[in-house]
Structure formats: structure tokens, C-alpha cells
Amino acid sequence: MVKAYGYGLGPFGVSKLVENNAVDYLGVANILEGVELRKAGITLPIMIMKPELESFDLIIEYQLSPVIFSFHSFQALLKALKKYPTKLETYNINIKIDTGMHRLGFSPEEVPELIKQLKKHTNIKIESVFSHLAASDQPEHDEFTHFQIQLFEKLSGEIAQSTPYKFDKHILNSNGALRFTHAQYDMVRIGIGLYGFVSDPKDAKHIKNVAVLKTKIAQLKTIPKGDSVGYGRRGLAKKETLIATVPIGYADGISRRIGNGNWQVKLNGKFAPTIGSVCMDMLMIDVTGIDCKEDDEAFIFYDQASTKQLSELLQTIPYEILSSISPRVKRLFLSK
Ligand SMILES: *Cc1c(COP(=O)(O)O)cnc(C)c1O
């Protein structure tokens, strides 16, 4: 899964890397994400989880692989195929079934009608049937997860009986793939695990960190006791204080809630608390007593633990920390 700009880390490096490492499919949320990957030269099949119905022509033009999750989306595809006929004899789709997540997908009651409609349109071929788990990382909901898997087994089986050919089945995301190995079927949809995070600490031990967010000290200044720092004068120097300004702010996806001492930036192995409020493009840290100079690197997060801790401070999850880093932050993809 390389949606949301590759979970915020940049989709192109990781897509090229997995393309060369036995991955069969990429997955993104919307059509433009898929188009961007095609323009970057990615040739793997790309599944579009929620195609915009008004842009099905782009799906056809860029040979993307649509998910059909409702009768409405099925009709939109048929219409687009009429308007933009392909040279292909059959057109491949992926069917999403709602087994209890209640987000997208055909409900179990809709499956018989879906089978009927698919029989009518023999030019449409099912490439895969899949579903999504609601709580793959939460042992307290394992009973529900098993129920979802069983329901998926039943419904995908009914569809399989109605088709003269075979299709792939998949239901597991990262934590599902680790925790429900019996349900890996033909594919698994690995997202957050690829970017360094899994829920079970036993598994986490084997997963390396892949992302750091760093900037550099733009300016150092010593301010006297009693002076203030930043907007609203919210940072107060209780004594003579060495301030470092680092050029990363809320417009880079750094929450203002990390200001005023709520987070510590790591530099030269030491920790410097924020002082004053986070600005749009910059924030200030108190580096008093830390050996540092202008242009030294400063890390907002630097490993899984610090990313997790930041997410907890902001009452969210690492997914949101990574994916909300804004486009103007330069992504550097390093591979060994
Ligand atoms: C994002 C997504 C995934 C990946 O989930 P992770 O928890 O990041 O592994 C899998 N399937 C679907 C349908 C998704 O939207």
C-alpha cells in the first residue's frame, strides 16, 4: 500500500524498490495517486481502492485496476467502458465486500445480485475479491476478526462458484498478515508494516526503522533572562537562554501542540525542548547547555519509539504522524 504519498514518506522510491522485490501489486486510495505512479514509470498493477466515479476514463487510460465496491460504482465503470472502449477482450476489476468494517464494499445481502450482474457482463473479469478487517491489531476483538474472515470465506466462495475462472482473494493488512496467518490467501496488503510499524512488540523487534524527520538549525541566539520567544510572547526565558530556530513549522505538518515545551527535538545526541509557539515555517528550541552550531541537524522524530511517542502526545497514531507531513518537506529515499 503506497497510498497517501506512500504513508507520507514518498511513494516513488518505495514503489520502485518493491517492484524489484517480488511484489505483485501496489495499492493507492484514489486515481490521481495511481496516475502519479504511472507518470513516474511504475509498471506494476496498481489497485485503486476508491476510484472517483467521474474519472474512470483515467483508470482506463493509465491501466489502473479499479476496486468496485457498490452497484453505483459498477454502473460508472460500465458507462466508462462504453465511452472509452479498450482493446482488451475482458476488463479486470477487484470486488470489495463489506464483512463488518462498514466503510466501503458490497454488503453480504448484495452479493447474490452482484453475482447476477457479473454474469450479464462477461467482458468484466474479476481479478480479485477482497475485504478489510476492522480490528486486526486488537486481540480483544479477535473473535470479531475471525467472524469477518469466515464471512469473507463464505461470500468469496459463492462468487467463485459462479465464475468459470480463478481469482485472487485477500483480506489482511499489516497486522492482520502477522496475526492471522491462516487467512493470507493469495495476497496481503501491507501498509504501515512496510514503513516500520507493527502492533505486536514481539514482531516489532524484527522491524527496522525506516523514517526520520530532520531539519537543520537556521540560527542560534542567546537571549537574556526575562525576554520572550515567538508569537504571543508565549516562550519565556527564565534565565539567559540559548535559542535555536529550526525551519520546520505547522505548515510542514508539525502540530502546533508540540510547542511550548511539549516536545523535545533531538540534536547532537541531546534533547532540546520547544520554546514558544510553533510558527508556520519555523519553531524554536531551547538548546542551553547543548554543544551545537548553526547548520547542525535536528530531529523531530528519529525512530519508531519517538514517532510513537509523538503520536501519543498528539492523541493519534503513527499513521497520521507520517501521512500528515506536508508536500513541501523534501523526501530523501535512501536505499542500501
Ligand atoms: C490502508 C489499507 C491497507 C493497509 O493497512 P495497514 O494497516 O497500513 O497495513 C490495507 N487495505 C486497505 C483496504 C487499506 O485501505
* Radius of gyration based on Cα positions: 24 Å
Strand content: 15-25%
User: Uncertain regions: pLDDT < 50 for 5+ in a row?
Assistant: none
> Care to count the β-strands?
15
Counting structural domains, the number is: 2
Main sheet strand line-up: 1-2-3-4-5-6
The span between the termini is 21 Å
Characterise the protein shown here.
It is a single chain. With 336 residues, this protein is an alpha/beta fold. It has two domains: 3-204, Alpha-Beta Barrel (TIM Barrel), CATH 3.20.20; 213-323, Lyase, Ornithine Decarboxylase, Chain A, domain 1, CATH 2.40.37.10. The chain has eleven helices and 15 strands. It has helices at residues 3-7, 11-19, 31-39, 56-61, 71-83, 111-120, 142-162, 174-179, 201-204, 304-313, 318-323, and strands at 26-28, 46-48, 65-68, 91-96, 124-130, 168-170, 213-216, 219-223, 228-229, 235-236, 241-246, 264-267, 270-273, 283-286, 297-301. The strands form five sheets. It has a six-stranded parallel sheet with strand order 1-2-3-4-5-6. Helix 6 runs parallel beside helix 7 (142-162). The longest helix has 21 residues, at 142-162. The radius of gyration is 24 Å and the shape is elongated. The two termini are 21 Å apart. The model has no long low-confidence stretch (mean pLDDT 96). The structure holds pyridoxal-5'-phosphate. Pyridoxal-5'-phosphate (PLP) binds at residues 1, 3, 49, 132, 173-174, 189-193.
